[in-house]
Amino acid sequence: MVPIFLGKLCQFLGKARLPSLLFLGVVYLAYVLIGGLVFWKLEGWYVVQQIEILKEKRMKLLEKYSCLGQNGLRELAEFTKTASLSGLSPDSNNITDGFWKFTSSSVFAATVVTTIGYGNIIPLTAAGQIFCVLFAIFGIPLNIVVLNKVGKYMLAIEKSICNFLEKKIDRGKCVRISFHSIFFVISAFLYFVVPMLLFKEYEGWTYSEAIYYCFITLSTIGFGDYVPDNNPAIDYPEWYGCLLAAWIFFGLAWLALLINHCIDLLESLNAYQGRRKKKQNEQNEQTVEEVKGETEKEPKVQET
């Protein structure tokens, strides 16, 4: 039984192309470790510097408010953390606009199913946490299906326009490449440049912070360090939250379109390489047959 099992296991690993999987695994691990090294070098010194600054500020704060003490400072820090989680502004008794109301709760539900998960508001009750798990189990696959369908529909529209232009213009391949390039530039402008300007205007972020937030959101990383429509000190217009929700949905659909586009290009490239390899094999077989035929036609030399 054991030799039979080992033989089947080796056959399975051979079909699975284990060397290529190991190579990809090594590349993936190296990529992650190199990224960790770069982040460590870029951010590590800054964190150490900030810790030293905070230590100095803590000492000055204890000297200024000597009656506070270390325990009082700890209690104040815990209160500030709890108030932040509850949406209470540290500057006043006002709460964040729409905090755990219907609109903000709907935005939170959207960040759950899209796996963005900013973390600016979180469920604190046991019932809310259990419902969040159940909601995400069914909502995340549903969101993937919807975005995939929307992305494929947008890709179909793009292909239809390309096919129409190819029929009208002689240089079809150039038209297709040009149209894809123009579409990508316009989409990147709509989903990155325009929101960047909007966030700079209404949130007061820098250009780098705004473009950083746009990418972190549309890639569904969602660190939560920058969250729009969440500052109680800013009076946002009523249309701001709706526009933000529409931007996230169509931006994710655009990302799904790009993924489908890349998959389509890779499949086309793979099919082209398969046809090219098949044609080359046929040419090699034909050459071998011709050489074999010429060899057979050569007159045999009779021995004297």
Helix and strand arrangement:
Elements: H1 2-15, H2 18-64, H3 69-85, H4 102-113, H5 126-168, H6 172-202, H7 207-218, H8 239-297
Helix pairs in contact: 5-6, 5-8, 6-7
What does this structure look like?
With 304 residues, the chain is mainly alpha-helical. Helices cover 77% and strands 0% of the residues. The N and C termini lie far apart (64 Å). The mean pLDDT is 77.
Key terms for this structure?
8 helices, mainly alpha, 304 residues
Order of helices and strands: HHHHHHHH
Shape, principal axes of CA atoms:
elongated
Q: What about the largest sheet? A: none
Oligomer type: single chain
Distance between the termini: 64 Å
Strand content: under 5%
Q: State the total count of DSSP E strands.
A: 0
SS summary, helix count: 8
Portion of residues within helices? over 70%
Mean pLDDT: 77
Low-confidence stretches: none
